[in-house]
């Protein structure tokens, strides 16, 4: 290991590859094994177990979040207002006092001037949204109503609740188990450690907010370098399975949900394989912000990987916190992270949705794509073309634009909207604020959105024609 600059580390990439006989496997004692199994079961049930709920199949995590936001929206509104204000106030105190106030360390809340101003702007906007002040156009369902009543409420609840269970899962062996088993796939295809599979899984079954929380946690503990983080945040912070279902239902295509989801999975995978190999991701330095903890260089049979995965998981459980300690720390970290990003999401997201709803910007930007969409054989090209670019503001907006179009157009946009991943009502500002030490910048995200769209448009057009040829549209 060598130090390149203060607080930054790199590691030697040419490491000896170990076989199973070279590894000091941890003893499988009853207590740590049970500790790991219970933690794994808690996380698996909460995030993965399909259960019927109000006529739909969902997971306990979604039920908990939906119950809280649905049963007590006023309380969630007060909580959201308080946490946005707290984030802005504490950030201001940290920025004006060099990270310390009355002996309290506030360095966690220090940020760049831009994000300081965005958090303060969030403090000013939050009361306007909560009390429904100002002009009516701020509060329509597609602008302020979407941002405040849906996205801010959801993210504000998802992160701290999800952080409780994901921290138990991660800190008591789940990360090591999933990461070790996924290593033969993640490293050659996506150039990231096997443990990145957990971040992606958390996004698929829960929320990109939870996935990004996992990424931040592992990054701060030396498990990822900056290029890993850039890759995961922009290629694996995926739309949840539940939201794909919402998109399908909105377009009255719920019967095609398995096909839409399968197409989405293929598209996200192909985009990741391509984009990790080109700038800006490929040129991001492999620097750590904490003492590096890279995965053990290992090769072996599937059985060897399973033995190593169990050993690493049990070792982590044996050395890790108690269930209560992990839950408490996860909740506190989740609240801190929520206060850090919620004001930014509100400020940037409201501006993005207002721009989309009240200006012809995206209609103009979409015009050059009309002949492209038409040439690819997708009907209603005049409507579909703007939908291919407006997704940068909010993933749900393209779906609303094509609700009255032909089935092929609906299928095309349904898959495209959830596969573009980068949008500035939530993911964009969240990633930039959470990972300003990588750094991930606005031009990078716009470039990646464009690159994803260039890859996705012909790919999804081909899939759409295949599904149509099978007589399913």
TrEMBL record:
Keyword Glycosyltransferase: no
Superkingdom, natural source: Archaea
Annotated ranges, domain Nucleoside transporter/FeoB GTPase Gate: 153-251
Xref: InterPro entries: Gate_dom
Keyword Cytoplasm tagged: no
UniProt protein name: YjiH family protein
Organism of derivation: Halobaculum roseum
Membrane-spanning residues: 36-55, 75-96, 108-131, 151-178, 229-250, 256-276, 337-357, 411-432, 444-467
Assigned keywords, A-Z: Membrane, Transmembrane, Transmembrane helix
Taxonomic classification: Archaea, Methanobacteriati, Methanobacteriota, Stenosarchaea group, Halobacteria
Pfam family, one: Gate
